[in-house]
Amino acid sequence: MKLDEFITTVRDAMTVRHVFGDAVTQDGMTVIPAASVWGGGGGGGGNDQQGQEGEGGGFGLHARPAGAYVIKDGVVRWIPAVDINRVLTLVGAVLITWGFSWVRVAKFRAKASTPE
What pLDDT shows up at residue 84? Predict the structure, then answer.
């Protein structure tokens, strides 16, 4: 794939369809799902010692649910998505940090209370 074809493919991948899903309407309520999307890429080209040309590139795209817009009776509400894995990771990190800190504080207090 040539570099200009690659850039066109990347541009087509970064569309609003990756951010907002299809609206679903039922019982007078419309739900529009939304996602957080980001990506990055790079490319380049050059010549080797024999004069042969080459080019290439790469791209990565990441998406995760962000929430949904709910429309009912003309009122729009934002309902955020809760990523339970992220919540558990954060709670685990806090507990581990607290555990290590508690041990260090206990050692410091024991050393400080010991008469010299």
Answer: 87
- Out of 37-41, 45-49, 88-92, 100-104, least confident range: 37-41
Q: At which residue do the structure tokens 């074809």 appear?
A: 5
DSSP, residue by residue, 34-79:
EEEEEEEEEEEEEE-TT--EEEEEEEEEEEEEEEEEEEETTEEEEE
Q: Please, are residues 84 and 71 in contact by the beta-carbon 8 Å criterion? A: no
Residue 73 reports pLDDT greater than 80: yes
Integer angstrom CA distances of residue 10 from 59, 61, 65: 7, 9, 21
Give the separation between CA 55 and CA 4, rounded to whole angstroms.
Answer: 10
Partners of 37 in the β-ladder: 63
User: Tokens in use for 22?
Assistant: 């299809």
3-state secondary structure of 81: coil
Most distant pair of Cα atoms in the chain: their distance:
78
Which residues on neighbouring strands pair with residue 102, listed in sequence order? none
